[in-house]
Amino acid sequence: MANSLAGPPLVGFSDIRTQSIDDWEQFRLEGQQYLNLADAAFTKKKEAFTPIILYNIFAMAIEKLVMSALMEVGRLPFNHTMYDLVEAMETWLPEKIEGMGERLRALDRYQEICDLENTQIIEPTIGEIEQMLQVSRELERSVLAC
């Protein structure tokens, strides 16, 4: 005799149909604007743009580009650390982040600002800023690719 209390199987996250989240195009545009600003400031060696400021602008560009890609497919990360952004991309859009995951995760090591009592900021070298520019442009090309 079948269990009369057993109902239909539960719906899982993978069963949910998604749709684009509004304003994903705006996030993409803002990501490109942040990236272009950081690129120009770094290339022109603008003194006002210290390595810490450039790091933060690259981080904002990456966050916006990743969020735009995820929003376009109707998915969101659990949080906004580089680890969380990469994990969401690896889950929902692995082809768009292929070969970049570890380089993007490594960006989290420069700032730990979630715990106000244990804030840690490491100033990146010029070589590290150059690597941030490279991975940011690689991500941009991948996100923009159809």
Describe this structure in words.
The structure is a single chain. A hairpin with a 7-residue loop joins strand 1 and strand 2 (120-121). This protein has helices at residues 24-43, 51-72, 82-92, 94-97, 101-105, 126-144, and strands at residues 111-112, 120-121. The protein has 146 residues and is mainly alpha-helical. The model has no long low-confidence stretch (mean pLDDT 90). Helix 1 runs antiparallel to helix 6, helix 2 (51-72) runs parallel beside helix 3 and helix 2 (51-72) packs parallel to helix 6 (126-144). Strands 1-2 form a two-stranded antiparallel sheet.
Distinct helical segment count: 6
Terminal-residue CA separation: 53 Å
Biggest sheet strand line-up? 1-2
Q: Fraction of residues in helices?
A: 55-70%
String of helices and strands:
HHHHHEEH
The whole-angstrom Rg is 19 Å
Which whole number gives the mean pLDDT?
90
- In total, the number of strands is 2
The assigned structural class equals: mainly alpha
Tell me what portion of residues adopts beta-strand conformation.
Answer: under 5%
Features:
two-stranded antiparallel ribbon, mainly alpha, 55% helix, 146 residues, 3% strand
